[in-house]
Amino acid sequence: MVVHLDARRAWEAAAGVPDPEVPCVTVADLGILRDVRLEDGVAVVDVTPTYSGCPATLAIELAIEAAMRDAGYDVRINRVLSPAWTTDWITEEGREKLRAYGIAPPEGSASKLALFGATEVTCPRCGSHRTERISEFGSTACKAQYRCRSCAEPFDYFKCI
Amino acid sequence: MALFDALLELADDHLVLGHRLSEWCGHAPMLEEDLAMPNMALDLIGTARTLYDYAGQVEGNGRSEDDLAYLRGEREYRNCLLVERPNRDFAHTMLRQLYFVAFMHPYWNAAAESSDEVIRGVAGKAVKEMAYHIRHAGEWVIRLGDGTEESARRMADAVDDLHIYTGELFEAGTETDDDVLPNRTALQPAWEATIDHVFGEAGLTRPIIPHPQTGGRTGLHGEDLGHMLMDMQSTHRAHPGATW
What we know:
The complex is a heterodimer.
Chain A lengths: L1 H14 L11 H4 L2 E7 L2 E6 L9 H14 L3 E6 L12 H10 L1 E2 L26 E5 L7 E6 L5 E5 L3
Helix pairs in contact in A: 1-3
Chain B lengths: L1 H21 L8 H29 L5 H6 L10 H4 L5 H22 L5 H29 L3 H14 L25 H15 L20 H16 L6
Helix pairs in contact in B: 1-2, 2-6, 5-6, 5-7, 5-8, 6-7, 6-8
């Protein structure tokens, strides 16, 4: 049982690390922290990148490594590409935090995405569905730019992939 | 070394097109596009990095992703000619993007079933990104093709200039073991369906070109690639091994 508890503690040490570009959510909220396990006294952390070219990938890995060392672990980061990360892995709590921060969380399920056609996005400020896309690409790779036609607020939408 | 060669073909396509898109950074016609093009460049270069890294492992001579990207000359580059074509105007850039990503989307979709674990991992991510790129480029091709007299003329010019390079996308390329990488030739109908869908709305006609321009896969490139590599590689070559 001691071992089991320690694995839980190791997970928690990594799970609290915030995303460097969207600091309102943690790596666990986003679902990019896949597994933390102890192998011969070393904490092995599986992390999956969000986008192929996400510039935060290395920063996230370094932040997790630092957090694990602070918690007293020898650590090895293992970058896992397959299966590919999907926004379906963002937790309910993570979605709520995004909304409170002013970022609309992904709508629907990534597995049912059509190649063409519009997505209905809800304004994180006023809850209106009368929104329009300004650009498919926003301030980071994972976000698109939208505008609310009810409250006129521009906002980021966390794309569904 | 068939797998090494095939990985280089793929990686070079992504790096060269990614670099071309990054040339727009600070020069785009509007702020949203100034964000969009570097974002797409990041996706492409990120994919290239993983492929170069894997190619280096497959080769087994200790070459890193940087060695492969920065220390090969133009005759050693294996990208198709389409991706090295210069940006010209925004219509050319968006059409070139549509042509490439409309091919890569079905390619990665098929590669997601690869028998190779690394390829499966790259493909699973890239196929989702390509869907966004198709939508972005497709919407611009429609908007410009079906836009003003001037924008329609520019889009038609872009089709005249670039279509001759699309046939190379479907060349067999270096053959690998079965089930590692998809058959390129078999993807032509899917590509044509996407292009026809977009062209139909844009008021454009897909030309039939009996003799496509090819040569990139054997290192026979246009003059423009050399200029691009000079720009891309000069810092690394001037300061070998520099870190910061």
